[in-house]
User: Which sequence fits this backbone?
């Protein structure tokens, strides 16, 4: 891509794509309605959110919409009782019982469809099975699964009985699973023998076995037979999913839970080596995800909606499971890799199921560009009517390709900015209301007070770089870091009192459009996956030959950011290519394949300030080889980010 003569820098990007007339005519929200919602949310936020909240099913209505007296601990829909599983299932049975809820395709090509009726039945049975294993309200359950319908079943079953799930992405290592089990004090792990990825079986159960050696809180392990591979079943601890549900009753009324009852924990990377257990609660999260799903994806009764994320990330939680199912949508779910068996797998799926809405990540789009237009062009993509992007800034070149080659020039693109912590989309065009500019997530959604400010919290002039903050609480915001409320306050609420700090750098243009550039903390975004430099550093220094390590990101045309490790070795150790390979494997073993370093560089010393802090900016410059002809947009953004980070070093 970087050799493309048409490269246009984000900074110079001026193209605008107003919503097309036909789309506007049928849109859930048009420009006038968006304006009305935004004004209403500004003038009467409680009234606005109350009205939105009524779209959910409540067992008992709330007494107050928002309690923000104990800053930064918001309570939403105070006193109301609700159940997420009920809202995603039971509520639809009368009108949508026979509608497809999940249309699933396994990597080897096997398929399954679960109607709302069938999904409800599976969830009820599994919820009863969980109860039988001693899991109850407030207990933590780790879910380490491939992308199969049972993963959604497990999540909704936890939600049904008020247990908190902690889904761990299947690409994480055994050590990572153990860390998360211990932090959450999980009672139960749900896994599968394996899952398919690029024609191979990922040995999930074997990883769990290793993790459980170091996870004393875990008493039981449920194993789904997905791949028919041989696994060890530890008597008294491990049980097969199919045995459990065989005799389970399909009658399991949903628990009436407090609106603020914890729904799940999801671990994500922060500035330190220890991942943060982001805690979301029930009422507000469900409202945030379902409302944004309706607005941003313009969801209609007959849409076939496909979000390609893994359920192990927040995008999968909010936009495969909770948001779409709460809206009674038909969700496509695909287990495997986009290039298995060939590079046209996604387009084959779009054509086969007549997908109307596709939500994917820039890193995937850049891979599709590299693989060539012949793959999408070989399939009928005319069912598509709306495209989405999430996970990292989308470079204008990728945006234009997505628009033309996948969207046939007719589909609006919603570039959605949000975070694990925000629970739901915060900044995004509404496709029937806002003109898009390639590379910009455009404007905050109605009710979301996101702004770009300087160090003192003052709005920055149009065009200058600043920090992205959110000035008012919103329903789907995280409530705390599980087990570490002090870290919650320090990380998100100490830079600007009473204001949520996103740790993203951004700028706002003269039209008020927000251009998010990337993280200003030590968090990397590798192929849309969040990873802290400290996590990789602490994995490296655990290796017996490593004395010290500094890890930085560098712009990468495909992955967004690549991982570069500067390593000093212990006395008497000789640097070698073999050692580089060994260290890369060591990081993969410790964290997972998503953390594999792109480059390991040995160095006699690391550059430090007089106070002994590693000068990361300097290392970032070296790692990026500033003079190279990488993707121009990313390099410019890196330069702005470097400036924003400067004061910290
Ligand atoms: C949903 C998700 C959050 C970080 C966030 C930002 C980056 C996500 C983006 C984007 C620019 C977008 N990010 N979407 N940057 N434009 N549309 O990805 O959550 O994994 O927690 O990552 O991802 O840097 O702070 P999460």
Assistant:
């Amino acid at each position: 891509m970087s050799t493309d003569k048409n490269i246009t820098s984000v900074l110079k990007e001026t193209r605008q794509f107003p919503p097309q007339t036909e789309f506007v005519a049928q849109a859930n929200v048009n420009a006038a309605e968006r304006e009305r919602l935004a004004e209403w949310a500004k003038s009467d936020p409680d009234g606005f959110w109350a009205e939105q909240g009524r779209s959910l099913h409540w067992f008992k209505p709330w007494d107050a919409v928002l309690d923000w007296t104990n800053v930064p601990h918001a309570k939403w829909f105070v006193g109301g009782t609700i159940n997420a599983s009920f809202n995603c299932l039971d509520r639809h049975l009368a009108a949508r019982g026979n509608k497809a809820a999940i249309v699933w395709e396994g990597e080897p090509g096997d398929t399954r469809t679960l109607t709302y009726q069938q999904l409800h039945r599976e969830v009820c049975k599994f919820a009863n099975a969980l109860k039988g294993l001693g899991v109850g309200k407030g207990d933590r359950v780790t879910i380490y699964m491939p992308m199969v319908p049972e993963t959604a079943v497990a999540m909704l079953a936890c939600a049904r009985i008020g247990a908190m799930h902690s889904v761990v992405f299947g690409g994480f290592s055994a050590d990572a699973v153990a860390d998360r089990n211990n932090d959450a004090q999980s009672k139960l792990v749900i896994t599968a023998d394996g899952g398919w990825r690029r024609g191979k079986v990922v040995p999930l159960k074997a990883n769990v076995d290793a993790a459980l050696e170091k996870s004393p809180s875990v008493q039981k392990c449920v194993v789904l037979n997905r791949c028919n591979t041989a696994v060890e079943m530890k008597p008294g601890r491990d049980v097969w999913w199919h045995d459990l549900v065989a005799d389970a009753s399909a009658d399991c009324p949903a628990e009436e839970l407090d609106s603020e009852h914890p729904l799940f924990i999801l671990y994500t990377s922060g500035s330190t080596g220890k991942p943060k257990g982001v805690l979301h609660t029930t009422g507000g999260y469900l409202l945030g995800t379902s409302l944004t799903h309706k607005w941003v994806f313009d969801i209609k009764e007959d849409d076939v909606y496909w979000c390609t994320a893994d359920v192990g990330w927040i995008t999968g939680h909010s936009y495969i499971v909770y948001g779409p199912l709460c809206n009674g949508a038909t969700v496509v779910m695909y287990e495997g890799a986009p290039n298995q068996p060939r590079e046209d797998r996604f387009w084959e799926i779009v054509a086969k199921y007549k997908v109307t809405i596709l939500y994917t990540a820039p890193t995937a789009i850049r891979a599709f560009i590299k693989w060539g237009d012949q793959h999408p062009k070989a399939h009928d993509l005319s069912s598509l009517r709306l495209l989405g992007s999430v996970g990292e800034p989308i470079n204008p070149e990728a945006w234009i390709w997505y628009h033309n080659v996948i969207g046939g020039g007719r589909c609006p693109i919603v570039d959605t900015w949000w975070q694990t912590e925000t629970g739901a989309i915060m900044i995004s065009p509404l496709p029937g209301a806002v003109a898009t500019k390639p590379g910009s997530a455009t404007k905050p959604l109605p009710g979301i007070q996101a702004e770009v400010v300087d160090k003192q919290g003052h709005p920055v002039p149009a065009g200058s770089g600043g920090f992205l903050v959110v000035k008012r609480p919103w329903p789907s915001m995280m409530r705390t870091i599980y087990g570490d409320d002090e870290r919650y306050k320090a990380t998100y609420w100490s830079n600007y009192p009473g204001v949520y700090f996103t740790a993203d750098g951004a700028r706002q243009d003269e039209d008020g459009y927000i251009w998010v550039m990337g993280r200003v903390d030590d968090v990397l975004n590798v192929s849309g996956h969040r990873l802290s430099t400290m996590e990789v550093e602490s994995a490296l220094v655990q290796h017996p030959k490593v004395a010290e390590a500094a890890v930085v990101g560098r712009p990468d045309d495909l992955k967004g950011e690549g991982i570069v490790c500067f390593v000093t070795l212990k006395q008497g150790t000789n640097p070698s290519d073999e050692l580089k390979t060994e260290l890369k494997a060591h990081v993969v073993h410790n964290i997972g394949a998503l953390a594999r370093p792109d480059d390991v560089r040995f160095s006699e010393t690391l550059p430090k300030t007089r106070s002994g802090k590693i000068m990361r900016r300097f290392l970032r410059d070296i790692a990026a080889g500033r003079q190279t002809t990488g993707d121009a947009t990313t390099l410019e953004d890196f330069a702005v980010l470097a400036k924003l980070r400067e004061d910290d070093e």
Remarks:
- The longest strand covers residues 546-556.
- Confidence is low (pLDDT under 50) at residues 1-8, 627-634.
